[in-house]
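DM from R.C. (forwarded with permission)

"hey, sorry to bug you on a friday — could you get me a structure for this? deadline for the figure draft is monday and I only need the backbone to look sensible"
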Amino acid sequence: MESLNTIKLADELTTKQDDILADTTKLNAEAIYQLIDELKVLKHPIQEYFEMSQDEYYSIESDHQLTLLDMNNKLVDLHDRILTNHVDGYVDKDEINLTYNHENPYEDGMYDKETDFHVLAYSLKVISAVMAVAPQKLTEIISKDAVLSLGLAVYALKHNA
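My reply, with the result:
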C-alpha cells in the first residue's frame, strides 16, 4: 500500500474516532487488515494469527517485544499491545529508528476501546510517516509484534463493540 493511502486511512480513523468509539460508525477492519498484509512484515495474512497460540507465534515469528503470559492462550486473548510511537533518524544516512510503548487495553479487567483505537490510529500515522520518506526501510525496521498489535487492536475493536 502506498503511503498516501496509509495516511488517508490514518486520518480517516482519527476524524471518525468519536463515532467509532461510540459504535455509531463501523471500523473498516478489512481495509486495515489489507494494509497490514500489504506491509509484508508478517509471514502470513494477519487474520491467520488470531487463532494461533501465543506459544506458536513466539516460536515461529515473534521479535519478543510483546509480553506473552499464557502461552496456551490464543493471540486474540493477549492483552499486551505494542504502540509504534515515534520515528526519527536521518533518511540521507539510511538511519531510521522506531520506538515503541506497551499498552494494555484490558487494564483493571475491563476492555478500553480507546486504548486499542489509540494503538491503531497513532501507529498508522507513524508508519505512514516512514512510508513517505523511506518505504523500502519499513519492513526492515518495524517490529513484527507491533504489526501484529495493529491486527489484534482491530480484532478487539470489531469484536468487543
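R.C.: lifesaver. The mean pLDDT is 91.
me: no worries. The beta strands are 81-90, 95-103.
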